[in-house]
Amino acid sequence: MTPLRERANLDVRLLVPALVAWATTAALIQSPTNLVLGVLGTAVATVPVGFSSRPGCRAIGLIALATATALVGVLGHRAVADAGPIAALAERGSSVRVEAKVASDPMPVRARPGSPPTWRVRLQVNRIDARGSTTRVRTPVLAFGGEEFTALRWHERVVLAGRLQPPQRAGDVVAVLRANRVARVSPAGPAERVVEHLRTGLRTATSGLPADPAGLVPALVIGDTTRMPTQLEDDMRATGMTHLNAVSGSNVTVVLLCIQWLAGALRVPRRYRLVFALVGLGLFVLLCRPEPSVIRAAAMGVVGLLALRSGARKVGAPALAAAVLVLLLVDPHLARSFGFVLSALATLGLLLFARRWADAMARRLPPRLAPLAEATAVPLAAQVFCAPITVLLQSSVSLVGLPANVAAAPLVPIATVAGVLVVCTAPLLPPAAVALAWVAGLPAWGIALIAHVAAALPYGSLPWLPGWPGVVTLVLAILLALTTAPWWLHQLTRRRWSAGAAGITALALVVPVPSPSPPPGWFVAMCDVGQGDATVVRDPGGGVLLVDTGPDPDAVDACLSRLAIGHIDTIVLTHFHADHVDGLSGVLRSGRTVGQVLTTSVDQQDAAGKGEEASRREPTMELIARSRLPVRAVVAGENLVIGSVRARVLWPARTLTDGSVQNNGSVVLDVHAGGARLLFTGDIEREAGAAVRRELVDGRFDVLKVPHHGSANQDAGLIAAVAPRVCLIGVGADNDYGHPAPRTLGLLAGCAVLRTDRDGTILLFGSGDRLRVGAV
């Protein structure tokens, strides 16, 4: 074990100016140029104050200088990006021909039924031909195209023809190009071709591994996530381990440590070791693609290495400040990037607390367990600083993130170093590279197993206030915990019985009582997923039909796990509103398998311009494509058979433009299961309800899934024609829509109405006239 090092004070004088410059950049990145110039002028005028002799003025001068530097970068990037006609042409939707350099690897976007998949690639446009004129530019553009995009390689020069459009949201690209023709002009340079050969060698060598390590090893080493299984991505996200499946500061730190070891083994003189390390880091960045996220990781990795070396801790804080300013100059849009925020905060946590906490833990552990101190302190410090920001991404605080990251920490460097060796040996000795791939794959497999197990643990996250109130609350809670920790530790050692009783009481308050298992014999279960729908129809032989997935992945996953659903034959997504499809990623968790996905055949882009809720078709189809699930659209008249479950598609037969196009495009199913007849109606409104009523031959049903969560926009004639005995309403407690509406409840008089907001998950038993209901 390394002897405990003497503490070194941190020099944080440059951190405040860097953080102020960062905040100013984030606030002004999308502001008008005149406002940015005004703030810049004020900052420049304030800089001379720092040279005066008055106390405190130097700090003001440094803040002004850092802010002015960052804003110069903002204006410089804006001037380069806006130079030329591309923004104006995009506003007019002009057809153009561009010459460009490929600036990123192609990534799949979506796969609509009956149409080829779409890919996106980032370009740096150097020349544009439009409206009879040619202009030299240097403008970032995001291009979308078909299968021909998969052949594009980083830094190739290409010619594309297509139509320009403005980007959907402000960001680091000036326009979007919908390409209809692509031609490759010249290949990438020798260095880029060598890098591509090395990346291909890594993918080839790891292709024989099981799915999880085959996807995770390239992600750990070079940030290539194209083969990451969806389930693994979801579980790593749920456990706070996503920093491992991308090029992050921790990866760079491991690589730098290896380079330093190699320099020592080669007996490189000490005065040249910094140059040796920087050259090695540059080659690693080139291998991973020198995109802004990789450059950010490289900078933070260097600072993180300084943070873990007590002899270099004095320069750690100035290095972090310099890294923040340099990265903002390289790409000002990083100021609003969650990845940048989390990376910088994690590095700050390492600087402030990791070494100190590691030393304190080591003093209290037996010598043989002392190495665990640093393995625990590093992720703990990073989690403490990053936790408040993650509340903005998900309204919960992970309770399994820290133990999962601590358990994975010893495996990460082994997998990373072995993966780098695979990259180096694949072009020369492919059999040796395959053997090394297994050396990298085994610890990667362990990391994946940790993610799966941690994600499946009950009560793995604590619900928290959403948005900025949640951030402020969590910051205050963390500050309170850090400042009172010594007192609590003292109380724990003095009053162990009282501490144990308090701990048990706290657990009783925050840990919910486990939900009971459902009784056997049910054939329909409407899951309680909040304001949304997710209903399971089960065949006694094990076949399962799932109609919609609700809005919350965690809620639908918990419901399906409680129902012991391990395989789903068919998922029907009635339409693409979030409360019916956003839970799909949760359905694909916990080792669950899916046979096929069926969707509405109505092109719900027809809703554009009508002020409707945004369609979630694109991200949903992208998830389905990544999960490699068969998917197709259904139309009226089709029949589905799942064991003894029979279903007929009653709707959509056409597109209705009256009312909500998306709601009225919902798939409506006539289902026979368990000796009962059920009508699933999605979110159809009055217009589609009347159309479905006219399609019914025998209108009476045992069970009605009430349309649109019981909204007032109902076709009364449909409810009267169906004459159900049991009515199911998937609805969230205290929802803002007033669902179910009193008018609709009046139409359901004479029907046994069951609601998920009051009854929880609803179960149907028996058959026909002997239907019984239950809830869990």
UniProtKB/TrEMBL annotation:
UniProt domain Metallo-beta-lactamase: residue ranges: 531-734
InterPro entries linked: ComA-like_MBL, ComEC_N, Competence_ComEC/Rec2, Competence_DNA_uptake, Metallo-B-lactamas, RibonucZ/Hydroxyglut_hydro
Any Gene Ontology biological process: establishment of competence for transformation
Residue intervals passing through the bilayer: 12-29, 246-266, 272-290, 336-354, 375-395, 407-429, 436-455, 467-489
Keyword Secreted: no
Protein's membrane topology: Multi-pass membrane protein
GO cellular component terms attached to this protein's record: plasma membrane
Keywords: Cell membrane, Membrane, Transmembrane, Transmembrane helix
Predominant localisation class: membrane
Descriptive protein name: Competence protein ComEC
Native source organism of the sequence: Calidifontibacter indicus
